[in-house]
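Why Uroporphyrinogen decarboxylase? Reviewers of the renewal asked for a concrete example.
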Amino acid sequence: MTELKNDRFLRALMRQPVDRTPVWMMRQAGRYLPEYRATRAKAGDFLSLCKNTELACEVTLQPLERYPLDAAILFSDILTIPDALGLGLYFETGEGPKFRHTIRSEADVAALPKMNAEVDLDYVMNAVSTIRRALNGRVPLIGFSGSPWTLATYMVEGGSSKDFREAKKLMYGQPEVMHRLLDHLADSVIDYLNGQIKAGAQAVQIFDTWGGVLSSWAYEEFSLAYMNKIVAGLIREHDGRRVPVILFTKNGGQWLESMADSGADALGLDWTTDIGNARARVGDRVALQGNMDPAMLYAPPARIRQEVADILRRYGTGSGHIFNLGHGITPDVDPANAGAFIEAVVELSSEYHR
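Here is what the prediction returned.
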């Protein structure tokens, strides 16, 4: 493989010295960019864009042409696994993802096929290898998956949910069925992420978008336990380098100590957790990624710069910080404001790495 010209992101994940804090954005290839909207229109719809190797590569690279980012992230969706398991993913305009089939019983779980990611999700693997070649060592490529709990919520609810009534009904009423589903999904995620790593992903992130809706004990039992299993099952060395793993639980700040015991290299933080407090709690066990409120990108550039400066100050000196938003960038953000955010990190962070 081509030598990596900018490994700042990977070094920070391993808490190794860097010249400045690396930065990337969740959903950095997305609807806030006019060039993305043009490519998506060319593809026809979101799923078609995900499944078109050349166009998925094109949109992955678009933000790198605008901004001095330190990583690219695979353009895909967290619900590719349930789709490959036969649930029939589709998107309703203005309503988000939906499934034609749901998982509500022991029989439904038993009927789920065993997934072979390199065959059943070959379009994702093709996208990873194509993007990696196109990057030509410019920055590292991040692969990703949804967490078992997050995937399960969509599969049980049949789409997104405000109260997760059906998922919690299954979890509390038939916990053994939910555990079987989560175990099946954990095996699928291991297979999926290892496939991405073999195809060229140089770091991977597990998105536990809905772990924060659980009670403390339920999070440990129904979400974190399965992410621990995934981390233990992943390829951690490839192409002569360590493959770092990032765990991100939205609204999961109360569980950082337990998450740090998972074996992951870094924890993602949403904006509700003070990054200085988080660093004090986890020490040097893991790197931290985050955590500016995405809504701050609606502010004037001067205010954005002030917020970046404050987060850098709160984290303090030394490596182990990857600057990011606390969740994905929203579609109606002005690209110039995203640029102001990234430029502020680039310009202000070097003093913390002398």
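The chain has one domain: 8-353. This is the kind of structural detail the renewal will allow us to pursue systematically.
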